Amino acid sequence: MIAKAPGKVVLSGSYAVLCGAPALVAAVDRYAIADTSRPAARSTPEIETALAERPGHPPSPHIDAAALRSADGEDRKLGLGSSAAILVAALAALEMLEAGDLDDDSLQQRVFEPALRAHRAAQGGGSGIDVVASTFGQLQRCQLASDGSIDRRIAKLPTNIVIEIWSSRRAASTPEMLQRFWALRERKPAAFRDVVRDLSLGAEAAAEASDASSFIDGCRTQLEALARLGDLAASPIVTPPVARLNEAARRIDAVALPSGAGGGDIVLWMGTAPPDGHGLAVAAEAGLSRIPIALGARGAHCASSGARP
Q1: Fewer CB within 10 Å, N or C, the chain?
Q2: pLDDT tens per residue across span 208-219
Q3: CA atoms within 13 A on the CB side of 205
Q4: For residue 230, what are the domain limits?
């Protein structure tokens, strides 16, 4: 059996989602592919954690996640949620091996909870919204409940929003960034509350925005709070390349925002128009390169011969 699961980008709500604010996460049309007919060259901690729950501890299927890594010869992760996509694809292929060809909804329902448990256990926490995107696809509005469950629903962006995905040459470790986030809560609780409040206000504004201007304003509020958070936590969330691109974005009423934990990886350009000549020049000087990606991709699904495309 062959299964595919998409990567993701977090459009809004980074860090704030961990404290109950809404996040917007979109599946992207770059997939991890799992094949049960081939032995795995290597596994991942997330897959091994999930397999330990399954009867007989089945072997990991072969995984091809090249689409979620750079193609510039450096073979670095792009920050598109590869660990979640790999895990969901592997579990989807194993589910189909047991149950046969499943429709998307049935397959996704069977995969989600085991994938969420394994991903959180292997990564020492995290929101799990990347698992949501890799499992269910599309654009999702996610909010964590106090018991750790995720309230999710299909979302829509305001019309006229232009979103471009840019890659940094600097890779970031999400678990390390999250450790610094929670350490700040212990070291400076008052400052932590203040910055989380502002992040949450921006996340709420973006999630509820009915027009492009309100959405961009909500993202700007988050950008400012993320920069403060990075300074407080001694963790460079808004890196100099992102800051330079954002200065160019402001000239045409757009915003440049780190996706997810920040510190490198993926940078989002969001506005009502793509970057102009000045913005493109700034991006090139900052070492950022555009990745051709479509948002709202199909979630986990069967890709075996004879299955639906």
Answers
A1: C
A2: 999 999 999 999
A3: 18
A4: 162-291
